Amino acid sequence: MLERAKEVTRQGPWMKVEYARFADDLVILVDGHSRQAWLRKAVEKRLREELAKLQVEVNEEKSRRVDLQLGHSSRCFAYIRDWVEKKIRSHLARARQRQGFGWKRWHREWLYGTLGLFQEYRVAYQPRSEAAAPS
Q1: How many CA atoms lie within 13 A of 16 on its CB side?
Q2: What radius of gyration do the chain's Cα atoms show?
Q3: Are 122 and 74 in contact (CB under 8 A)?
Q4: Neighbours of 116 (CB within 10 A)
Q5: What does the pLDDT look like over 20-36, one tens digit per residue?
Q6: Are 106 and 93 within 8 A, CB to CB?
Q7: Residues 20, 6: Cα–Cα separation, whole Å
């Protein structure tokens, strides 16, 4: 059903519906454009109908709808960067039998310059060239 929904709603190279399954979990992604609001409702309704035919119940406590339209990747990447820095600092402090995270001892320039930590946490949008466009 979801494969059919993907193909029916596809517009050229752009997918309006995508999904991922793992064991008994399912994630469905629907285009967030306001014109696709009907599609989000239709996919959920159709999925529930199909699951009912299979006598599969949806666990309402675990199920949720998440609107990623208000999401901002730089916040997510900043969180990841800070988490990695904290883990590195914690490891360095433990290895030297010191307390804390060494915020003054190991500054960011040292972590990224000397240790070579990855720091290009950003989404890069590249324009499609005519040569790369499908024919």
Answers
A1: 19
A2: 22
A3: yes
A4: 8
A5: 887 778 888 888 777 77
A6: no
A7: 12
Question: What is the domain partition of the chain in residue ranges?
Answer: 2-68, 72-135
Tokens of 13: 């190279």
Q: Output phi, psi for 47, to 5 deg.
A: -60, -45
Record the pTM: 0.48
Number of residues assigned to the chain = 135
Residue 28 phi, psi dihedral angles, 5° rounding:
-120, 125
| Average pLDDT for 2-10 | 85
E strands, the chain, are 17-22, 25-30
Closest by CA position to 118, among listed 74, 92, 72, 85: 85
Tokens of 101: 């995270």
Pair of tokens at residue 123: 């989404």
CA distances in angstroms from 1 to 30, 55, 90, 111, 133, listed in the order given: 14, 16, 48, 49, 29
CA atoms within 13 A on the CB side of 51: 14
